[in-house]
Design a protein that fits this description.
single chain, about 150 residues, alpha+beta, Transcriptional Co-activator pc4, Chain A, seven-stranded antiparallel beta sheet, 7 strands
């Protein structure tokens, strides 16, 4: 599950789960990388997804919504198909993971530090345990959002 929108506003600050802000590396080629500010957000009212706001200094903001389970699984093994894929860089070490995001006209590969992301994701599962997500979804607001988008 993904979407990317340039120049999106910052994530809401009303989330019950504090945001996680990390500097991550975008792999440009074998020898070149670019530091990107990544802000991960979780809203218990939409517990199936994690929001990932990517900010390039002096550039646009890009927002992706990624399945929370996809992200958690991607810390330990290959996860996702299509637009969003994630897998551990060295499965036995657990130090970093790769996140690949693709849209119609571009693809980007990022290296993420696993320990802070894993700790943050664990906190989201404390707020909304796996399997309990449907009970936390505001179905009235979700239906309204779906109808407004059509």
């Amino acid at each position: 599950m993904s979407s990317n929108h340039p120049d999106v506003p910052p994530l809401p600050t009303s989330y019950a789960c504090p945001e996680l802000v990390l500097d991550i590396e975008r792999v440009l080629d074998v020898a070149a990388r670019q530091t990107i500010r990544a802000t991960f957000g979780f809203d218990p009212a939409a517990p199936l997804v994690v929001s990932l706001l990517l900010v390039v200094e002096g550039g646009p903001r890009v927002l992706w919504r990624i399945g929370r389970d996809l992200m958690q699984q991607g810390l330990r093994s290959a996860s996702g198909l299509g637009d969003v894929q994630m897998w551990p860089a060295c499965p036995d070490e657990g130090g970093t993971a790769w996140l690949q995001l693709a849209s119609r006209d571009m693809a980007a590969l990022f290296e993420l530090p696993v320990p802070p992301l894993e700790e943050w994701l664990e906190h989201t599962y404390e707020l909304v345990p796996a399997g309990r997500e449907p009970a936390k979804i505001d179905w009235t607001a979700t239906r309204a959002n779906l109808l407004a988008g059509s």
